[in-house]
UniProtKB/TrEMBL annotation:
PANTHER family: CHEY SUBFAMILY, STRESS RESPONSE REGULATOR PROTEIN 1. The keyword Phosphoprotein applies. It comes from the Bacteria. InterPro entries: Bact_response_regulator (IPR050595), CheY-like_superfamily (IPR011006), Sig_transdc_resp-reg_receiver (IPR001789). This is Response regulator receiver domain-containing protein. The modification 4-aspartylphosphate is found at D55. Keywords: Phosphoprotein. Residues 4-115 form the Response regulatory domain. The keyword Transmembrane helix does not apply. One of its GO terms (biological process) is phosphorelay signal transduction system.
């Protein structure tokens, strides 16, 4: 089974790297990356991905506001350097918090497998 993934992060370089990593993990499918969270929310509600990789601190709206704005609820993996928000993000609906950077496609694969295993419980 393949899991469709979307990324919302104001760091365009991170989006490009994550796109390349997703394309190298056989059970993931890249659905899009958005540097503007408002555009990302609209795309998610249309595309209905399985997984959302989401940043916390973005200029337009925060990761918290982004989560609240979603009609479609994918599995949310927060990827950020702002570890101080981890507990709040989990309470807000994130399945996992991951510190930037994601080191490799193998690291990404491990993160997603852990999250998927927790979701099946």
């Amino acid at each position: 089974m393949k899991y469709s993934c979307v990324c919302i992060d104001d760091d365009k370089m991170f989006n490009e790297i994550l796109e390349q990593y997703i394309k190298r993990v056989d059970f993931l499918e890249f659905g899009g990356a958005f540097s503007n969270p408002i555009e990302g929310v609209m795309a998610i509600d249309k595309l209905k991905p399985d997984i959302l990789f989401l940043d916390v601190d973005m200029p337009e709206i925060s990761g918290f506001t982004t989560i609240d704005a979603l009609e479609h609820r994918p599995i949310i993996i927060m990827v950020s350097s702002h570890y101080e928000h981890e507990r709040e993000l989990i309470k807000a609906g994130a399945a996992k918090f991951v510190m930037k950077p994601i080191a490799s496609p193998d690291h990404l694969s491990q993160i997603v497998k852990e999250v998927l295993a927790e979701q099946e419980v």
